[in-house]
Structure formats: structure tokens, C-alpha cells
Amino acid sequence: MNWKALMSVQRLGEKKKTDAFSSQKLRSEFEVDYDRIIFSRPFRNLQDKTQVFPLPDQDFVHTRLTHSLEVSSVGRSLGKNAGAALLEKYPELDHLTPGDFGAVVGAAALAHDVGNPPFGHSGETAISDIFQHHPISDQLKQSMRPEEWADLTDFEGNAQGFRLLTRNQRQGLKLTLATLAAFTKYPCYSAFEQRDKKKKSQKKYGYFQSEAEIFEDMAQDLGLLQVAEKVWTRHPLAFLVEAADDICYSIIDLEDGFGLGLVSFEQTKNFLASILKEKFQPAKLEKIPSDKEKIGVLRAVAIHTLIEESTQVFLQNEEAMLAGQFDQAITDLIPSADILEEISKFSIKNLYQSRQVLEKEAAGFEVIDGLLESFILAVYFKYYDQASYSGKHKSIFRLLPEDIVYRLDHEAKSPYQSMLLITDYVSGMTDGSAIKLFRILKGIDLN
């Protein structure tokens, strides 16, 4: 792989471009990507999607939207730091700036969660479960290829995100290939049997069969290295997007836990001080009157430290990435890796398994199961088993949005494509809208 090809400004479905700057010369093509994402509906919907903790009545905690904005900010810094060093190393990249690298990582990081369904990661499991265990599963499975069935029974938010970012190419986002590839942490498909989960790029999967052709075209245009049929190496900047996410959820979830009283001040302070090492100045910290302000300052310096460490690891391994010989998380190799692992273990026990998180997850399973069952049956019976299409199913079908109905009527050519449209609809809901519709469907709320 080489950086000139990897930093392609080409957009899906458009004529070839070579200039990183837009026609107005005010914004680079990569900055345009950022703007398109931030104004998009999938991104806006993140404002009412759970990150980890249910939204409390008073104290602020992060939603998917605020988390994504912070990951993007960290990603932009990582990209600019790395870009400055790469431009010194590769003089032939003089058409680019450090800001271009920052814009690609920042845009990809901004979009990294757009495919996640309501109620956090439990939403992905709930979607997978309904296809695996519902009585209609056998009928659906028989109508699909094994790799299509794997998309539904192992639903993946990353693949859903790629689907959202690449669909409807006439009026859609039309992101640059560089940003799309940097977004893709898992450049393989769901049914890849030789997947080695010890490799970070194969731990999950990054595209559905419905987008397989688009993904292959993107990979070939960028010069990503193919490691197996329909499987490629990562774009190197995807490692920075992943690092930005790892940094933010490690540190910010801890801060949220402190704000909600799930972690003590001393525990939070000690974790962050361990990252700062010699930068930690307890005497200076004591001059800050509020414990929340103290943690806020420590959090900011800790993130800055992790950005510096991650940049160095990226640059040390950049040539191996280009050769397809590096496939690890950057944050597993930084000097603070051990303390991040301690924070992770602590968070799993004390935050992610706290009662309020588990209650939200349990409610999410119930809501998503109820919505999917209703819409899957209504759609399947209407289009593929009309003898079973009852008055109840007709009423439920009429609740689908116009755009979903149009695509079911005009674009879906198989049960697989129809089911993906239903998962598009349900996974795109906010927590609040999903709960509201569930209550209506179950007759709980008729107002």
C-alpha cells in the first residue's frame, strides 16, 4: 500500500478527482466529508442513543452523539500528529497537509457509531437473537445464502454503519474512499470461516453482503492488500480511528461513572494519575476547589498523554501497516497499556455490569424483540407468504415510514434485502422513539 493511493479524494459514483481541495478551494474534500456526516440524519439520531449509562434526570452522561464528537476530536489530533510526520517522511505527498490526515481520521471517527442500534451493544445482540431463535427463522434461512443469513444472525453495527454511509449514492453522503476505508475497522465479511479473532481487523466484520461489491471496489481503488477472498488489510488510518475510540471510552466512561457515584473520587484520580506518571502534580490539583473539576483536568491531561503515546506507536509501525504486517490495537502497545487494561477490567465489573446499565439492556432486548417481531412478520407475510398476511399485519405494516415502504416495493428483490430494510429502520431508531413505538404496538400507550 502507499499513502498517495490511500489518501484518495475519489467519491463513490463520481468522476475521478486528484485535488484534495474542493472546487471552492475553501475546504478540503476530507473536510467536506466531516460536514456531510455531521448534518446527516444517522448522526443526529445518536443524540438519543445510549452510550453506556441511561440518561439521568440531572447529571450529564455521554450519549452516542457526544461520545462520537469527542472521539472525532481525539482522532483529528491523532491524524494531524501522524500526518505531520508522514509528510516529512514522504516528500511526494506535498499535495496534502497534516490537516488532511486529521480530517480523514476525524470524519471517520465522527461516523464510527452511526450503525449502532438503540440501547447500546445489547441492541446488536437483540437483533441477532430474533433472527436466530424466532419460529419463522427456518423459513427465512431457507430463502437466503449462508453468508446472507450470517449477516442477520450476527448483526454488526460496523457493517450497518458502512451500509448507511454508502447507500443511496445519488442523494447520499458520497464520502471519499479514504474516509470510508478509515471508518472500516473490520475489512471482512460475516461468514468468513477462517477469521482469526486474534487479529484486530478480523475480530468482527465490516460489511454486509448487500454492500460487498461496493466494498471490493473501494478496496481495489485504494490498493488495500487482499489477504483472502473478499478480505483485506486495514487502511492504516483505521488504526488511529480505533485508538481514538479506545482512548475515549476508557477515560470518559470512567469519568461518567464518577459523576454518577459508581466510582469514588480517589479511585478515579488514581487511575488517571497512573496515566500521567511524572506529569501528575498533586499540589497543583489541590488548588482546584471542586472534585468534578479536578477529575476534568486530570481527564484532559490523560487524554493528551494517550494521544502522544498512540501517535508514537503508529509512526513506529506505519511501514508494517503499509505492508499488511501489523494487525494490533495501537493502545495495546503504548506505555499506558497496562493501566488501560486495569481501567477496562474495573469498568466491566463496576460500570458495565451496574444495575442501571443491566436494567437498560434488559429493557432494550424487550423493546427491540417486540419491534422486530412485529415488522418482520408483517413484511415477510405481505411479500412472501400472503396467505398468512392478517389484518394485524396490515395495520403494523402501515406504521412503516414511506421511504422504507418505497424501497420494499421497488428495490427489495429477496427476503434478505427485505429483512435488511427492517433492520435499517429499527437500528436507526433512537432509544426514545423505539420505546414509544413499542408501547403503541403493545397497546400500553394509546395517547
From TrEMBL:
Superkingdom of origin organism: Bacteria
Keyword RNA-binding listed: no
NCBIfam families per record: dGTP_triPase (TIGR01353), PRK01096.1 (NF002205)
Keywords: Hydrolase
Pfam families hit by this protein: HD, HD_assoc
Keyword Hydrolase among record annotations: yes
Protein name: Deoxyguanosinetriphosphate triphosphohydrolase
SUPFAM superfamilies attached to this UniProt entry: HD-domain/PDEase-like
Domain HD/PDEase: 60-259
InterPro entries: dGTP_triP_hydro_central_sf (IPR023293), dGTP_triphosphohydrolase_C (IPR027432), dGTPase (IPR006261), dGTPase-like (IPR050135), HD/PDEase_dom (IPR003607), HD_domain (IPR006674), PHydrolase_assoc_dom (IPR026875)
